[in-house]
Amino acid sequence: MPDPAKSESVRTAPPRRPLARNVKLLGAASLLNDIASEMIFPLIPQFLLTLVGGSKEQLGLIEGAADALASLLKLASGGWSDRLRHRKWLVVFGYLLAALTRPVAAWATRPWHLLVIRLADRTGKGIRTSPRDAMIAESTAPDNRGRAFGFHRAMDHLGAALGPALAAAFLWWRPDELRLLFALTLLPGLAVVGLLVFGLRDVERAEPIAAADGERPAAHWSWRPFDGSLRLFFVAMLVFALGNSTDAFLLVRASELGVPLWALPLLWFAFHLAKSIGNLVGGAWVDRLAPRPALVVGWMIYAAAYLGFALATEAWQIWALFGVYALYYALAEPAEKTLVVALAAPEHKGLALGWFHFVSGVALLPASLVFGWLYERPSLGAPAAFGCGAALAVAATLLLLAMPRTNVQLPAVEIRSGH
Q1: If pLDDT is split at 50, 70 and 90, which confidence band does 3 have?
Q2: Which among 11, 174, 188, 418 counts the fewest CB atoms within 10 Å?
Q3: Does 55 fall in a domain?
């Protein structure tokens, strides 16, 4: 672990510098990929519940299992990429797999079809995510990482805003062609692959991790390289994730309170546009204020938003609550990754990011199953489901506050490529 460089307090704003070429390319890739993904994601709950004949519990199973699989692969791919000279081809393959499997949803006729398709799509996500985040960190100076991660998430959310807008326009033009809309997601998916194959550059770094002094190197999934602060943070992330079920349930809640089907893509558009703008601002705040305080505020906003979803009774309240929920993403997303990278040794960035994604995602399956079970029970319903998520967010925040004050900024390192 590097020695502390700065205390966890308000910092002088770092000089504004251009974002690295790799960061911009990976941001553009996420923009295009999320246009494809979010063209159909807000429609999947209703597609499952109506055209395919599924249930809310099956929705929780499908989304939870898909993201749990992605979490396992994010952990593995992070460790693998630390041991390889090149992270680029893991990133490219992950995007290619998603691009080829996502459009197959057009032919789904049973709930298990959607399960298989979502598992394949999330396999691609699991393979690419940790190596991609490690490339962003390695392409960026330490005092600019909050802004880099914020920019990447902003582009991701902008794509997630444009995708539903395009879907709404398409369904207005051809309202009975939902399956054709699913098939058309192939086009932006292939554009992502072409962009990365010809544009992304691996960052020069030290030799891959190898055995030292005759000892076996740490396994891909080992916690041995991490100190107590990073381990406690992962525990807090696990508690938070147990209350953070799939956002598909938010769309179900919106439908229940009167938001019509045609407006769901527009709601999703507004939500992701707010997240995109928020991440651009939130990433800069993280660099100046330190990641942990920003994350504390973000998690408390999450708890407040979920409590609001539990108590909401009108459609207009859903629109307002999605805006509040976007603030959580704006603060938490850049803060979480910046804190993980700062607390991890340089040679274990991929492994640390893999554990971050694993811990935050593996709990999604039990979280979504429990949420769906609570939601389905007539005596419990939305108040119990969303209230449980809010309570776990508060508990996770208390654990985060229990972390010792520690280094949140790595010393400057030479960045040899990726500009």
Answers
A1: very low
A2: 174
A3: yes
Residue written as token pair 């100046």? 288
Contact status, residue 19 vs residue 148, Cβ threshold 8 Å: yes
Helix, strand, or coil (residue 158): helix
Cβ contact 136:418 at 8 Å: no
Of 79, 162, 68, 160, give the one whose Cα is nearest residue 119. 68
Q: How many domains, in total, are found in the chain?
A: 1
Given pLDDT bands bounded at 50, 70 and 90, which one contains residue 236? very high
Who wins on pLDDT, 101 or 226? 101
pTM of the model: 0.73
Specify whether the CB–CB gap between 310 and 98 falls below 8 A. Answer: no
Is the pLDDT at 399 greater than 90, yes or no?
yes
Q: Is residue 68 part of a domain?
A: yes
| Distance of alpha carbon 347 from alpha carbon 353, whole angstroms | 12
Comparing C-alpha atoms, which of 143, 126, 139, 121 is closest to residue 22?
139
- pLDDT at residue number 409: 42
Give first-to-last CA distance, the chain, whole Å.
26
Q: Which CATH number does the domain housing residue 140 bear?
A: 1.20.1250.20
Residue 8, domain member (yes or no): no
Domain range for residue 378? 21-202+225-402
Q: Do residues 102 and 121 make contact, with C-beta atoms less than 8 angstroms apart?
A: yes
Q: Is 342:409 a contact under the CB 8 Å cutoff?
A: yes
- Closest by CA to 293, choosing from 1, 11, 4, is 11
Chain mean pLDDT for the chain: 82
Core vs surface per residue 48-87: b (16+ CB within 10 A) or e: bbeebebebebbbbbbbbbbbbbbbbbbbbbbbbbebeeb
**What's 314's DSSP letter?**
S
Helix (H, G, I), strand (E, B) or coil at 109: coil
- DSSP character at residue 388: H
- In three-state secondary structure terms, 245 is coil
Give the Cβ contact number of residue 221 at 10 Å: 14
Q: Indicate whether 210 belongs to any domain.
A: no
Buried b (16+ CB within 10 A) or exposed e, 91-113: bbbbbbbbbbbbbbbbebeebee
